[in-house]
Batch of 3 targets.
Target 1
Amino acid sequence: MHAARLALICLLACWSFGASAADLALQDQDCTKILERWAENPKSVPKRLVDACKDQLAQPAAPVAAAMTPAPAAAIDPCANGGAGNVLCWGPWASLAPAAAGPLVSLAMPEPHGDCDVGSGLADRCRVKLEAAAEGPPGYIVAPCDPGAPCGFATFVSGVTSTGDVESTSFKRFDLAPDGSRFVVDPGGSNPVNSVAMDTNFQWREDEYENMRANGTAGAEQSRAIARVIRGGEGEYIELAADIWAHGNRETRAGNSGYFAWGTATSASGLSLLNGEGISLTFAGPMSVNNATNASITVDFGSQAKWTGNWTNPAWSFGAGGSVSGANLLSDPAQFTSNVQSGSIVQGALLGEPGRVQGIAHLIDVRLAGQGHIKDVGLLHSRYED
Amino acid sequence: MNAPFRTTLIAALGLLGLQAEAATIALQPSQVIVQQGSDFTINLVLNATDAPGSHPGLFGGQVVIDYDPAQLLFTGFSTELNVYSPVTTGTAGSRSTVTLGFDHATDSGVVGSFGFRAIGSPTEGTTIGLRDADDFMGTFVSYVPTYQAFYPTALGTSLQIQAVPLPGAAWLALTALGAAATRLRRRSPEQDTATRR
C-alpha cells in the first residue's frame, strides 16, 4: 500500500511540477510494461491508457538515469542537507524540489476503481476499472472479436431456465472449449462464470448439426451446455455451436443461464481472401431466445465491406445494415428500417474460414415501435459454395 | 413428502383431470391389476404438444423411475428411439431405480416400454415413481428449430398385485370332492342302522 501510494503521488507530482530524468525513465518503463501487456491481451488495458503511452513513448527520449525503483517511504528526506538536486528529491516530503528536466507529458490517469485484476502488471500502482475493456468500444454491445480467435456471444439471465424478462437480460461474451467440455461467460470481465468440467455426449441430428449434451458437477456446482454443433477434424473439435448454457449451485438453487452462439472468428488471411474476392455471402438461421424469429444477413466483402440483414418473426420484422470491421459487424443507426427506435444495436462476428463451415454469431438489442424491446442471440450458418 | 408419494399424488391428480395444460411425461401400465408372478409392461408416454419450438418437433430428456424391488422385478426397457444415455439401474434408499435418456421423440406418443414381473405378495397397490433425472436444471429439450428447455410434469403410476385365481377345472374338482365328502358323511349313519337290523 505504501508503494502504491508513493507511486501515485510520484506520478501526480511529476504531472504537476515536472520531473527529473529518473522520473521520465520510470514513466517510459511503466508505458513499456503497459504496451507489452496490451500486446499480449488487448482487452487487459483500457484503450485510453494505451493511447497515452503510445504518445508518451513517441516523444524524443529524455536522458534516462539508471533504472530506479520508487524510493521507499523512508524517514530520510533526500531533499535535506543540500539534497535539492537529488534525483530522489520528490515524493511525499514537505518541500518538493523543482524538476531537473522539462515538464513531464501528462498521462491520462484513470479514475481509481479498486484493485487491478491479477496479471495486469499494474496491480502495484494502477486501479483500473477493467470492466470497461469487456464492454468494448462505443457502439458495441460487448467487446468485439479478434480475427482468428474464439468468439461467442450470449444472453445472461438469473436462474437456470435460460429464459428471463427482456429488461433483466444482459449480453456477455462467451467462450467454449473446442471439445465442449468447458465454457466461460464474460471471459475477461469483472465476474466471469466459469463452468465446471463437463462430460460431453454427441448424437446425430437429421440436419447438418449434431446434438451435444454437456453436463458436469463439482461438489454443489453444476454446469450444462445443450447445443447444436458442427464439428471439424472428423469430430475432433467444434467449429460452430449454439443454444443453451447454464451454471448454478444445486444446494442454493441459484444460478445463471442463457443462450449462446460461438465459433472461431474468421482469420485475417481469410478476411483478406474474402475481401479480395469481393464476393457476397448470405447467412441464415433461427434465433435462439425466440426461435420463431428467422434471420438472414448478407455480407458484401470488398475494400469497404458492408452487410445488410432482416429479422422476421410472426409478430414483427425489421431490417438493418452496417459496416464490417475485421471480423466484426456493427449496425449503422441510419440503416435500420423505420420501425426501429433509436438506441438499437445489431452486433455480430464472422466465424470460420473460406472454403469451410462459416457462420455469423450475432446479438440483436432493438426496440421496435409497437412491439417493445427485443433481445436475442443467434448463430447463422452458410456453407461456402465452390 | 417423499418422491414416490409425490409422484403418486401427481398421478392421482392427473387421473382426476386436474392436470394443467402443460407438457407431460407419464407412466401408463398395460394393466392396473397384475397377477402375482406375471410379466407386464409400463409405457413411458410423452406429450410435448405444448412444449416450445416447432410442431411437429423433436424432443428428448432423461428420466428416472423408482419402484419397490420386493414387489416388482425390472426385466428391461425397449424403444425404437435413440437412447443417448443408456438404461442404468440403481437404488434410492429402499427403492430401485432405472434411468435412461432418449432423443428424437415426437410431439406425443410412447417413448418406450419398461418390462416388469410382479414378484411380490398380493397388495392393494404398489407405486412406480417418475421424475426428471435432473431435478435442478431439467433435461428435457425441444430440438427444433433450436434447442429450448421445457419442464414436463412427471406422472408416475400404481398398480395392484393380485393372487393367481384358480382355474375352472380346479373349481369343478373341488366341488366334486366336496359333494363326495358330503355323501360319505350321510351314508355312514344309514349303514350302521342296516347292520344293527
Target 2
Amino acid sequence: MVDRISLLPDAIICHILSFLHTKDAVSTSVLSKKWYPLWRFVPNVDLSDESVPDTDEKAYILFREFVLSVLLLRGTSQQIKRFTLKHHHYDNPNLNKWVSVVLQRGVEHLQLEMCTDCYYHKLPTGIFSCRTLVVLNLDAFYVNVNDVSSVELPLLKILHLGKFKFTEYRFLIELISGCPNLEDFVAIDVQCEKYGSKGKLKSITKLKRATILDCDFEFPLEALYNVEYLNLNIREVSPHYNDMPAFYNLTEMKLFFYEYRWQQLVELLNHCPKLQILKIHMSFGMEHDENWACPRFVPECVLLHLRECSIYEYGGMEGELQFARYILQNTRVLQTMKVHSFMSSSSDKKFQLLQELSLCPRGSATSKLVFI
Amino acid sequence: MAEKASESSNSISLNTVDGKIFKVSPTIANQMQTIQSLIKAYDSSRVISLPHVNAFHLSKIIEYLEGKSATTVSAVKEFEAQFMKDLSLKQLKGLLIAVGYLKVNELLELMPKTVAKLIENKSVEFLRKFFGIVNDFTPSEEAKIREEIAWAFDGVDED
C-alpha cells in the first residue's frame, strides 16, 4: 500500500485539516507518524461543546481539558488566526483562560457564540484591546464598562454583536471610537442598562454595511451615515428627524416595519436619496391599520433610483395596498416589485390581492409585478 | 517559418510522465507555480518534463484553468462544483497530488475544501483507507495517542 497522499506537502494536508472542526483535525494525529504533528500547524481552531450532554459533568470537564490542550499543545509562536467557539453550557470557568491564550496568538478572527437562552456570560477581558483582530463576533455576553480599560481595535473590519448587554451607553461610544476601520457592523438584541451620560457617537466613516435590530435603546443612526447597506427596524428610527442626516451612499435597505408608522417610513425614504433596493417586512397580524396618507411629495429615491422593491408578509390591508400603489405609481425606473403574501392566505384571497395590485397604475412602463 | 516560430513560441510544451505532450498558452502555464521559472527561460525548441504528473491529471488541470475564466462569479462557482463532482475519489486524490506538485494555487484552495467534506467526522480506519496511509505506530504508541486525545474520538461515524 502506498501512502499516496503523504506525498503531498504538509502545507496541503494542513490546508485540508483547516476546513475540519478541530476535533476531527486532532483525531488525524493517530493516523501515522507523518500526520501526528500536523494539526498543530492548522491556523484555525473551531470548537463546540454541542455533543457534550448538559447533565454529564464528567464529559464537560473532559471537553474543557481537551480545549486547553488543543490551545497549549501548539507552539507559542504558532499563530491562531481564527478561533471559533460554540458553547452551550452555562458556566465555563475556563473561558477567560482560553481567550487569553488565543489573544496572545495573533488572532484575527474571533467568534464566541454562547448558545444559552436567557443567560449572559461575562465577557473575557482583553478582547477590546486585541490589536490583531479583523473580525469579531460575540453572542450572549455582558460587559461592565468599568472593566474595559480602553478599546483599541485598529484593524477591525467586521463587528457582530448578538444578544449583548452593556452597563452604560458610553461603552458603545468607546467601542465605536476604537474601531476606525469598521466596515460591517451588526447589532441584534443589544441592550444598554443605563442610558445616562449620553455623549456623542462618532461617525463610522468607513462603514459600508450595518444591521441594527431589536436594540432596547435608540441607536444613533447618524453614526451610520456612510453605509451602502442598511438593515433596520423602523422602531430604531427616532421620530425626531432633526438629528438624522441623509444616507447619501445607501443603495440597499432592508426594513422591518411595525405599527404602521407610514409617516416615518416616507420620512426615512426621504433621507435615502440614492436608494435602489428596498425590502420591507410588514408586521404580522396587526389589526389596526393606520391610514396611509399619501404624502404630497415623492422622495427622490422613489422617483429616480428605486429599481427593486420587495414587500414581505403582505396582508393586503388598506395601508399596505396604498403603499404598494404609491411605489408602483411613482417610480420611474422600477424593474421589479415583488410581493410576498402571508403564508396562510388562501388562494382566493391571494388572487384578490394580486388583482388589486395588478390594477395599480405604473410609473415605470417596464416594471414587473411578481406575486408570491 | 517566422510565423511558425511565433506561433510555437506562444505555446509551451509540457511532457507528462506517461509521454504525452500538451501545448498550453503561457497564461495557463504560468498558473503552475512550479514551472514558472522554466517558462521564463523557455524557447520553442524545448519541452518541459513533468515527472510526477500524468496525462489525465494534466488534462484536468488545464480543463480547470481554462474553464474557471467564466464571466460571472456564479458561473465560475457552477463550473467548479461540476468539475469536482466529475472526479472519482481515486481521481480526486491523484489530482490533488499533481496539483500540489505543480502548485496550482486556485485548485489548492478548492480541492482541500472538497476533500475535507469527504473526511468529516470519519473514523481513523476510514481515513487510513481513504488516504492510503500506512500506520507506522506500534499498537502501544497508538493507544497512548488515542488516550491523549480521547475526546476527539467522541461521536465519530463508524464507516
Target 3
Amino acid sequence: MKLAQNLFEPAKSQISAEHINRPSTTMLQDAWRRFKKNKLAMAGLITLASLILFAFIGPYLIKYNYYTNDLMNQYLNPSWIHPFGTDALGRDTMARLMYGGQVSLAIGFVSVLINLSIGVFYGGISGYFGGRIDNLMMRIIDIIYSVPDLLYVILLMVVMGKGGLLNIMIVLGIVNWMGMARIVRGQILTLREQEYVLASRTLGASTSRLMLKHLIPNAMGPIIITSALAIPSAIFMEAFLSFIGIGIQPPFASWGSLAAEGRLNIPSYPYALFFPAAAIAITMLAFNFVGDGLRDAFDPKMRK
Amino acid sequence: MAVREEYILEVNNLVKHFPLGGGLFSKKQQVVQAVNGISLKVKRGETLGIVGESGCGKSTAGRSIIRLYEPTAGQIIFEGKDVTKAQGNDLMELRRNMQMIFQDPYASLNPRMTVGDIVAEALDIHKLASGQKRTNRIYELLKIVGLNPEHANRFPHEFSGGQRQRIGIARALAVNPSLIICDEPISALDVSIQAQVVNMLEELQEKLGLTYLFIAHDLSMVKYISHRIAVMYLGRIVELTSSKDLYANPMHPYTQGLLSAIPIPDPHVEAQRRRIIPKGNVPSPIAPPSGCYFRTRCPHAMEVCAKEAPELTEMGNEHLVACHLLKK
C-alpha cells in the first residue's frame, strides 16, 4: 500500500501546552479539603463548635444565671427544671458550666495567642540569625525548661496577685511559649536556606520582608498545629490551677473551679463533679482530634 | 548584541571559606575551602560558562559574586564598582544590575505567593512600580518568558518544571539587570525542556543585551551556550578559554579527562573514544593537597607539583591554563 504525503496533515492541538486545567487553590483551601475527609477531625471540630455555642450563646437561652443563690434548692439532682442539677448554694449547674466554659475557652485561646506571639518572635529571631545568637537563645530556653512548670506558674501567680482572668491568661501564655519557639526556630532554620529565600535576598529584600513574606507564611502549617494542640493544654492547666485553688476565684467560675467545688461532696452528690469534668474531657478530646487532623492536612506528604 | 571588548565583571583572587561548625566549647575550627582564589573577567554581552564536578565550588563562586555569601578575601569589580564593599544604596543598585537564576525550579519559588507576586517582588522591593503599572509589568514579563498573563494569579505548584524555571527567569528580568548568574538553571529539567530554556536564554541575551555567568556540569550544554568556559577543580580555575578552543585543544590534564567523558553521537568515532579516568577520588576541600590540587590524581604529576601551586598563565590566544607541565 502506498501512502501519499497529502493524506496526512498535522493534528491541530486542542489546547496549548501552557493551559492549566486545575482550578487554582491556595494552601488553606487545599488543607481544608484534606481536613474535611478526616471524620474524626470533623467530629472534633463540630464538637468544638457546639461547645463554643453552648458557652457563649447558651446563657441567653436559659432563665438561670451563674450567681443567684437559691437556698431552697441546694444539690438538686438533674431534672427537667435544672438539667445538670444545682450546687451547694442552689445555683444552676448548667448556667455555671456555660459561664465556666466562656472563661476556660477564653483562657485557652488568649493564652495561646500570647504564647504564639512570643514563640514566633523569639523562634524567628533565633532561627533567622543562627550561629551564636541562636545558640545562646536556645540555651536560655533549655534553662527555662529545666524549671518545673508548676513552680514557675505558682510563683508568677503569687507575684501578679492571684485570681484575675487576665493574669491567668498572661501567666499561661508566658509559661508555654518555649515549645512554639523551638518549632518555629527549626522551621526558619531550614527555610532560610531555600532557594526562594536566596532569590529574594538577591533582589535586596529586607529582613522584615523575608520574615513576613517568605519565612513565617511557609512555617504556618506547624505553627497552626502547635497552637491547636497548645489550647487544650492551656485549658487543662487553668483547670488544674483552679482545682488547687490558685486560679479563678468564686463567685466566678471555670470548669476547673467547678470541678474543685464538686469534689467536696462526691459521695452524696456525684453530679456536681461529673458535669464539669466531662466538659473538660470532651474539650480536650475534641481539640486533640482537630490538632491531629490539622497535622495531617498540612503535611505535604499526605497530598493527593 | 555582540560581545564587546569591555569587562563588565572582574573577579580577582576570590576566596570563600566556610568555618565548619565547632560547638560552644571546642576550639579547633576546621574550614571548608570552597573557593580558593579564582580570578576571571567577563566581557559585556558574553556568556562565560563555569564547569566542574559537584562540590568544586562553582555555585559558591556564583553566590559570592552576587553577595549572597560574604567573600573571605578577594575583589569583585562589577561595572567599575567593588561589590565586596557595597553597602546601603550601592548594594541596592547592585541588586538591580546583577541577578540570579536558581537550580531547582521546585525550591526557588515561594509556594505561598502567586506567580504575579513572585515576579513583581523586585518591583515591590525597589519600589519601581505599583498599581496598574505593576500589573502591566507583570504581564509584560510573563509574556517575555512565554507564559500567559492569566497565569499571574496562580500558585507555583500548578506549573511544570520548565514553566517554573521560566517564572524564575521572569523574576530575574524584572529589574532589567545587565548580568545574570545562572546557577545550573537547566540541570533539574528534562532534556526537551532544557533546550527550550537554553534557547530562551539565548534569545533574551540577544534582545536585552544580557551577560551570563553560566554555571553547569553538563559539558555539551555549556559548549552550546557559552562563548568562553572556565573549568574549576576543588575551588580553583584550572583552565579558561573560548569554548571552541577548549573542546578542540584542552591543555590541562583534568580538562582532558572531563572532555573524554562526553559521548560522541557517531558510532564509528564513539568506538574509538578513550576515557581518561583520573585515579582516586576528589580530595576533601577541608584538607586539599599541597601545591597543585590535581596532583594526587594527575597521570603526569611531577615533583614540582607537590611544592608549588601552578599559576593561571596564558598559552596564547587568551587560553589560560594552570599546570606545571605546560610551563616549559
